[in-house]
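[Automated response] Your request has been received and processed.

Submitted sequence:
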Amino acid sequence: MLKRFKPDIICNNIFEIDLKKLKSRGINYLIIDIDNTLVPWGELEIKSEVFSWIKKAQELGFRICLVSNNQKERVKKIENVLGLPSVYNAKKPLKSGFLKASYILHEGKKNHQTAVIGDQFFTDVIGAKRLRLFVILVRPLKEREFFVTRINRIFERRILKYYMKDESK
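Generated structure:
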């Protein structure tokens, strides 16, 4: 069962993602988590490298939507700064947040040319894989996190270790 939820790519951060390779795989849409994927948890300052990466993705033709379990106020601030649509209070790993983002990106059409980028196995990966989407798991930007997330990380490390062990076979 764990193999069903294996991320398609695991990398250290968004900057390691080969956007041209994603395009060559037929990926045209990106659903991106905010906290500890683009911006450190609890912070609002967005680094210039993130702006550059988003601009590069858009120049390559990607349409992007942000998806977060965080509250409206925080998500809308980041949405306004980045100039990207967003879904707040997404309730990941439930499908609803991903489906809302898909609706925004695909204008209501079902489309599996979508990659989800996030830092959490139990929210981003499981939620996206339930919809059979391509998933890129990045390492969290900071260790400082919501207390429930810190607990989830204990189990997440074990699962990722299993995947790494499986890869070496």
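Summary generated for your ticket: The chain has six helices and six strands. The first helix runs from residue 19 to 24.
If you did not submit this request, please reply to this message.
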